[in-house]
């Protein structure tokens, strides 16, 4: 099967410390922490009584799990074993979709927090979840930019990439 590691590529995964220091690695770590904050704050409220918070919970939990999977994949350099997958393009599309869906989750969460409900016990959690959903959306947007640059080759044009590939 194309893209699966062969017996010669059966080396154990190696931890890539430089990935943690890269912009994409740092942003993925921040997305994991912020996404955890969003869904845990929503989970600590009576979100099941409000349909809007169900959407916020789905988006935050779904992208938190996928972000952890991407983070582990890049941290252990597993993306190099599956070389047939266009990882930069896949990561760019993932970040763009996450940005758009986190935008809807942020707007939904912020609109569902009613200013007259500040006496309710979970008002602060809902307001904090709205704030962290906005910050998470911004980090996914910045990741989309860096993923786009990685996918395009950091600004190289077709003429220079052809010369260096065949020289």
Automatic annotation (TrEMBL):
Gene Ontology CC: apical plasma membrane; myelin sheath
Signal peptide extent: none
GO biological-process terms attached to the record: myelination
Subcellular location(s) of the protein: Apical cell membrane; Myelin membrane
Main location: membrane
Gene Ontology terms, MF aspect: structural constituent of myelin sheath
InterPro entries: MAL, Marvel, MARVEL-CKLF_proteins
Occurrences of domain MARVEL (ranges): 19-152
Membrane topology, as annotated: Multi-pass membrane protein
Segments passing through the bilayer: 20-42, 54-77, 89-115, 127-148
Residue ranges the record marks as coiled coil: none
Keywords: Cell membrane, Membrane, Transmembrane, Transmembrane helix
Family according to the record: Belongs to the MAL family.
Subunit structure: Forms oligomers.
Protein name in the entry: Plasmolipin
Source organism (scientific name): Elachura formosa (spotted wren-babbler)
Lineage start: Eukaryota, Metazoa, Chordata, Craniata, Vertebrata
């Amino acid at each position: 099967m194309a893209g699966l590691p062969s017996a010669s590529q059966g080396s154990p995964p190696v931890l890539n410390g430089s990935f943690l220091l890269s912009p994409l690695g740092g942003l993925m770590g921040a997305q994991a922490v912020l996404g955890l904050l969003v869904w845990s704050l929503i989970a600590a409220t009576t979100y099941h009584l409000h349909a809007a918070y169900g959407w916020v919970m789905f988006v935050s939990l779904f992208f938190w799990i996928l972000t952890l999977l991407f983070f582990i994949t890049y941290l252990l350099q597993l993306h190099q074993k599956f070389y047939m997958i266009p990882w930069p393009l896949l990561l760019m599309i993932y970040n763009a979709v996450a940005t758009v869906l986190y935008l809807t989750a942020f707007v939904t969460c912020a609109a569902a927090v009613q200013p007259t409900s500040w006496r309710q016990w979970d008002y602060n959690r809902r307001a904090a979840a709205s704030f962290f959903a906005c910050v998470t959306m911004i980090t996914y947007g910045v990741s989309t930019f860096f993923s786009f640059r990685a996918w395009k080759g950091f600004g190289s044009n077709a003429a220079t990439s052809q010369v260096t590939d065949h020289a």
